[in-house]
Amino acid sequence: MAVTYQDILNNLKNNQYAPVYFLQGEESFFIDEVIKHIEKHAMEESLRSFNQVVVYGKDADIPNILNHAKGFPMMAERKVVIVKEAQEIAGFSKEENEKMLLHYMENPQPSTVLVFGYKYKTLDKRKKLGKTIDQKAVLMTATKFYDNQIPSWVESFVKSRNRQIDQKALQLIVEHIGNNLTRIANEIDKMLINIGEEPKIMAEHVYKNIGISKEYNVFELQKALSFRNVMKANEIITYFKSDPKSNPIIPIVANLFSFFNKLLLLHHAKDKSEKHLASLLGVHPFFVKEYIMAAKNYPLAKVVSNVRHLKIADMKSKGIDYPSQPEGEILKELIFNLIH
């Protein structure tokens, strides 16, 4: 039975456990979160040494996993068997292993909670194993978020920690970290510890706790480009060149590509109202005016040209089809081409 991450968490919080969970997909954060919740809450800590088994796919095989699953709990309501990194189980799709899994799925041990964390892959539901797991187990497929989904997720995550987040702080986190939900969550949790009882995460907290320079960061570079502020853009690039380890080129280019891609969407939008543009661009309405102003500074033809410049810079940074160049020189040339 295919369900969402939130459906699973709601049921677990109500102490409703299924015999088999198969957690798959590209977004490892949700897989890890479900597993962590089951590890922590399925039974009292004093009962875990006898009733909770955690194995890793590279060290396990299907017969051994199922032997654990078929066992009975000792003085506990349930037994928990967790298979982390299940995608690394040797011969997972071999016929004999599939037969054993299929047989267990048809008649699972009712007192066992068997959990597979199958990251970065998905089962083929057209095949018997995939079809059976879909029908007999709790199946969650965690897909990667699109970039425009990240801000609302961050707001929800912060809210789940009983805090709020300022819009500039939100954008700084998204621009700096990207779509790595695990890293975003870890950075926010560390930051919340450091800011104590502060009810709202502000930009100053992000600068101080996530190691982003207040003046010289991708967010400020994007702003300088929006205004076609050559001096400020070059100042930021010079700073990046002085510390390339902390300011690697690939995420910088990716962020700028996202920025100019949004300008493309804005140029082609028929409805230019701020509310519609905020939804279209996947940004908070607070930032829409900046994009409107940037679109005025960069006509459609220039935006298309800049997307091409960014693709070339990306290939140069990865050593594809171009001779090797220092990252700082690639960035310097890129910024010149973007503005002029």
Automatic annotation (TrEMBL):
One of its GO terms (molecular function) is DNA binding. This is DNA polymerase III subunit delta. The keyword Iron does not apply. Residues 21-142 form the DNA polymerase III delta N-terminal domain. Residues 215-318 form the DNA polymerase III delta subunit-like C-terminal domain. Keywords: DNA replication, DNA-directed DNA polymerase, Nucleotidyltransferase, Transferase. SUPFAM superfamilies: P-loop containing nucleoside triphosphate hydrolases, post-AAA+ oligomerization domain-like. It is an enzyme of class 2 (transferase). Its EC number is 2.7.7.7. It comes from the Bacteria. One of its GO terms (biological process) is DNA-templated DNA replication. GO terms for cellular component: DNA polymerase III complex. Belongs to the DNA polymerase HolA subunit family. InterPro entries: DNA_pol3_clamp-load_cplx_C, DNA_pol3_delta-like_C, DNA_pol3_delta_N, DNA_polIII_delta, P-loop_NTPase. It catalyses: DNA(n) + a 2'-deoxyribonucleoside 5'-triphosphate = DNA(n+1) + diphosphate. Pfam families: DNA_pol3_delta, DNA_pol3_delta_C. PANTHER family: DNA POLYMERASE III SUBUNIT DELTA.
